[in-house]
Amino acid sequence: MQRHFDKELEGLKTSLIKMGSIVEESVQLSVKALLEMNLSLLEQVNENEDRTNSLEIEIDNTIVDILALHQPVATDLRFILAAQKINNDLERIGDHAINIAESVTALYKKGGKLELISIPKMAQIVEEMLGNSLDSFIHNDPKLGMDVLGNDDKIDELNRNIFKCVVDRMKDNQNMIETGMELIRISRNLERIADLSTNIAEEVIFIAQARIVKHHAGDKKEDTA
Amino acid sequence: MQRHFDKELEGLKTSLIKMGSIVEESVQLSVKALLEMNLSLLEQVNENEDRTNSLEIEIDNTIVDILALHQPVATDLRFILAAQKINNDLERIGDHAINIAESVTALYKKGGKLELISIPKMAQIVEEMLGNSLDSFIHNDPKLGMDVLGNDDKIDELNRNIFKCVVDRMKDNQNMIETGMELIRISRNLERIADLSTNIAEEVIFIAQARIVKHHAGDKKEDTA
Fold first, then answer.
1. Which residues of chain A register pLDDT less than 50?
2. Is residue B19 part of a domain?
3. How many domains, in total, are found in chain B?
4. Is residue A51 part of a domain?
5. B176 domain-assigned
6. What percent of chain A has pLDDT over 90?
7. Per-residue pLDDT reduced to its tens digit, A214-224
8. What is the DSSP code (8-state) at residue A117?
9. Is residue B21 part of a domain?
10. ipTM above threshold 0.95
11. Can you tell me the distance from the alpha carbon of A212 to that of A210, in angstroms, rounded to the nearest whole number?
C-alpha cells in the first residue's frame, strides 16, 4: 500500500515538473520572440497554452484522488496542498507568457524601431527566478527557494523604472503611445511571472520547513504597475 | 467525532465568509472613493489588507489541520480543496482593491476634471459579480454561480473599450497620459476582480457538482488588458 502511495506522489511531482517545463518554455519563447521580433516562435507558446490548461485539470483531479484514497498526513499532506497551489501558479505563468506573446504580435504589426529599455535585463532575471523556483521544487531545495525571494524587490524596481521611462517617452512623442502601452504590458507580465515564481519558492519552503513565509516583506501585491 | 468535524467545517466556512465580506468592503470602498474622490474611505481599505493577509494564513493552517486530523473524503474533501482556492482568490481580490485605492490616490493628487468613461458601469457589474459569487458560496447555490460566469465576457468587452477610449484621449492630449494610465489600471484591476469572482463561482459549482468548469470558454486568461 505504502509503495503504491509513494508511486502516486512521485507521479504527481512528475506531472508538475512537466507542467513547469512547458510554461518555462513558453516564457522563454515569448521573450525570445520579443528580442528577435520573430513571431514564428509564438506558435509553440499557443500550443503550450492548451497543454497546460488540460494538465492543470488533470493534476487537480489527481490531487483529489490521492487525498481521498490515501488520506496522507504530515509532510505528504503539506506536499499535496502545496502541489495544488503550484499547479495554479504555473497555469497563471503560462497565461502571462500568452499575454507577452500577444504584445509581441501587436508590436510586430506596428513596426518601426523598438527600444526595449531594460526589459531584456528584467526578462533575464525573471527567467532565472522561474528556473530556480522550478529547480528548488524538483530538488526539494528550500535554500534555492530563498534565493528566488531575494530577487523580487529588484524586479519591482525595474518594472517601476520601465513604466516611468515609457510614460516620459509617450509624453514626448504621441506616436509612442501604442508601442509604449505594449512595453508596459510586457514589463507588468514579467513582474507577475516573477511574483508567481516567488509563490512557488514559498511553497517549496513551506513543504520543507512547514512554515508559511507568505507576506514576508509585508507587501506582496498583485500586479503592482 | 463527526459532530466535532462538522463544527470545524462550519468554522472554516465562517472564516471564508468573513474574509469574503472584508474584501467585498474593500472593493466597494475603493470604487466609492473613486466615484466621490474621497480619499478618507481608503483608510479602511488599507486596514482590511492587513486583516486579509493574516486571515489567509489562518485559513490555510486550518485547512491543513482539518485534513490531517479528519482525513475527509467525497463532498467534504471537495469543499476543503475548494476552500483553499477561494481563500487565495479572496486574498488576491483584496490586493486588486488596494491597487485601485493607489490609483485613486494618484488621480486625486493629479487633480483636474476626471471623466470615468464606463468605469462606473463596469464597477457596478463587478461588484454584483463578486457579491453573487460570495452568496453562491454562502448558500451553496451553484445556479447563482452560473449567473456569475455569464457576466465575464461583458466585463472583458468593457475593459477593452475603456482601454481603447483612454488611448485615443491620450493621443489627442498628452496631458491625459498619466491620468489615462491610472484609469486603465483601475479598469484592469476591476477586470481581474471579475475574473477571480468567476473563479470562486467555479469552485462553488465544483463543490456542488464535482465537475471542473474551468477553461469553460476555452479562453480564461489572466490580465487581458
1. 217-225
2. yes
3. 1
4. yes
5. yes
6. 87
7. 665 444 444 44
8. T
9. yes
10. no
11. 7
Could you give the percent of chain A with pLDDT greater than 70? Answer: 92
Single-letter code of the amino acid located at B117:
I
Sequence-ordered strand ranges (E) for A86-189 = none
Q: Which of A32, A30, A147 minimizes the C-alpha distance to A97?
A: A30
Residue B167 has its nearest CB partner, among A63, A177, A188, at A177
Please state, rounded to an integer, the average pLDDT across all residues of chain B.
Answer: 92
What does the block give as the cell for B6?
A: 462538522
- C-alpha A152/C-alpha A137 separation (Å) is 18
Across the interface, whether the CB atoms of A57 and B215 are under 8 A apart is answered: yes
Query: CATH no. for residue B11?
Result: 1.20.58.220
Q: How far apart, in Å, are the Cα atoms of B55 and each of A38, B67, B91, B101?
A: 46, 18, 9, 21
- Nearest chain A alpha carbon to B182: A225
Distance CA B105, CA A164 (A): 17
User: What is the C-alpha to C-alpha distance for residues A129 and A200, in angstroms, rounded to an integer?
Assistant: 10
DSSP 8-state code for residue A140: T
Neighbours of A153 (CB within 10 A): 11
Rounded to whole angstroms, the Cα distance separating A220 from A215 reads 6
pTM score of the predicted model: 0.92
A63, B81: Cβ pair inside 8 Å?
yes
C-alpha cell at A134: 522550478
Scanning A160-189 for CB atoms below 8 A from B yields 167, 170-171, 174, 177-178, 181, 184-185, 188-189
Residues 6+ apart with CB under 8 A from A146: A201, A205
A212 touches chain B (CB under 8 A): yes
- 3-state class (DSSP) for residue A221: coil
Alpha carbons B56 and B94: distance in angstroms, whole number: 11
How far is B16 from B62, CA to CA, in rounded Å? 11
Measured between CB atoms, which of A57, A85, A221 is closest to B99?
Answer: A221
A–B CB contacts, 8 A cutoff, strictly below: 100
How buried is residue A171: exposed, middle or buried, by Cβ count under 10 Å (0-12/13-18/19+)?
middle
Joined together, the cell numbers standing for residue B109 give 493628487
Give B115: exposed, middle or buried? Use CB within 10 Å, 0-12, 13-18, 19+: exposed
Q: How far is CA B57 from CA A133, A172, A214, A221, B51, in A?
A: 21, 46, 8, 15, 10
Question: In chain B, what residues touch A98 (CB-CB under 8 Å)?
Answer: 221
Range of the domain at A155: 2-209
Chain A CA closest to residue B184: A181
> Cα angle vertex A137, ends A141, B213, to 5°?
155
